[in-house]
Each structure stands twice: as C-alpha cells, then as structure tokens.
Write a structure and sequence with these properties.
Blueprint lengths: L2 H24 L10 H20 L6 H6 L14 H15 L5 H19 L2 H4 L2 H23 L3 H4 L10 H50 L1
Length: 220
C-alpha cells in the first residue's frame, strides 16, 4: 500500500468513526425499545459514511496528500502488461504528476495519452509487432515516469535556468523528451493504421480476383 493510500484509509476511517460518535451521542436515533439498537444504527450509518468517502476518494493522490507532503510514486506497483493495467498505470502517472506539470509539458503528455490509449484500444497483441508492444509497455512502465521523475527532482529555479551556451534549460529538455515519446507512440499508431489499410486493400484485391473468376466460370 502506497503512502497516499494509507492517508486515504486513515481519513475515511476517521470520518466514519467520527460519524458513529456524532450519531450515537449527538443525535437521537430510534431504538424501538431494543437496547443497543441505536448504537447499531449509528455504527451502520458510520460504516456507510466511511464507504461513501472511501468510494468517492479517487485512486490517485489529491489535495490532502499534497498538503500533507505525502510522496507518491509515479509508478503503480505490481502492474502487468495487460491493456487494462497499462491504462491504469498511465492514468496514475499522469494524475500523480498533476500540478507539477507545466503548460508546455501538457501538449506532449496529452499526445502520449491519446496515442497509447488508441493503440491499446486497437488490440495491441494482434495488430502490433513485438517491438511496438515493447515500446508501448516500456513507455508506460519506464520511459514516461523516468523522464518526469528526473525532472521533478530538480528545484524550480534550477529547472528553468539556462544550462549551456544555447540557453536551453532542463525544462526545455524534458519538453523535448516528452515530444520524442509522443512522436514514437503516434508513429506506432500510424503504422498500425497503415497495416489495417494494407490488409483492407489486399482483401479487396482478393474479392476482385475471386468474383472475377466466378463470373468467368458462369459465362462459359
């Protein structure tokens, strides 16, 4: 369990427990002449309050974690290479990056998000080659979180300070690197679409040959 998940459980549990106390001692609950029934009702309502907070709390870190300074890993632990897990891992990375992402970084990140989801929705295992599968999974598991993590470790003044004669900063570099990842994932998607077009074209030629042959036979 990650630190932000522990915070989520503690907060939800605390709200549920507080709800039990308030309901039991601060509000008159019916007990229908049955001893202890009001406590049972308070406990049930408190449990529902906990469940509501727990279910409504997103699976990603939010404002409370940031206020508490809870460190959240950009990677989901123990994630497989299955499409659903890759989608969840990518969503976690992007959501965790959250407010640390600058406006210039948003555009390539959105491109990566769209391309990876489009590839996964297109049945990666059947339509992409092994190299393409590796690139998509490695982008989600390593390339993207590694790039963001290295950048986020820099103080803001260092990240935006010119580093060389060309005046480029670490921020410029990370935007460029994210652009490379975006272009690579988009090229995989384009190759998959091109492959589908080639398959459709080949199928069309097959049908033409098949039915032209059938027409020739009928005319004889």
């Amino acid at each position: 369990m990650q630190p932000f998940e522990i915070v989520r459980e503690l907060v939800a549990g605390g709200i549920g427990a507080l709800g039990v106390l308030v309901l039991h001692f601060g509000m008159p609950l019916p007990h229908w002449q049955l001893p202890g029934l009001d406590l049972v009702l308070a406990a049930a309502l408190g449990g529902m309050l906990y469940a509501g907070v727990r279910l409504s709390w997103t699976t990603r870190p939010g404002l409370i974690e940031r206020l508490l300074g809870v460190e959240v890993d950009l990677r989901l632990p123990d994630v497989s290479d299955e499409p659903d897990d890759l989608r969840a891992a990518l969503r976690h990375t992007l959501d965790t990056a959250g407010r640390q992402v600058t406006a210039s970084m948003l555009e390539p990140l959105e491109r990566i998000d769209r391309a990876v989801h489009a590839v996964l929705d297109s049945d990666l295992g059947n339509t992409a080659g092994r190299q393409a599968q590796y690139t998509i999974t490695a982008t989600v598991h390593r390339y993207l979180p590694d790039t963001l993590e290295r950048y986020f470790q820099l103080p803001e003044d260092v990240a935006h300070a010119p580093l060389g004669d060309d005046g480029r900063s670490a921020h410029d570099m990370v935007v460029e690197q994210l652009g490379v990842l975006a272009s690579e994932t988009e090229s995989i998607l384009e190759d998959m679409h091109a492959g589908k077009v080639r398959e459709l074209s080949a199928h069309g030629r097959f049908l033409e040959d098949r039915f032209n042959t059938a027409d020739d036979l009928l005319q004889r």
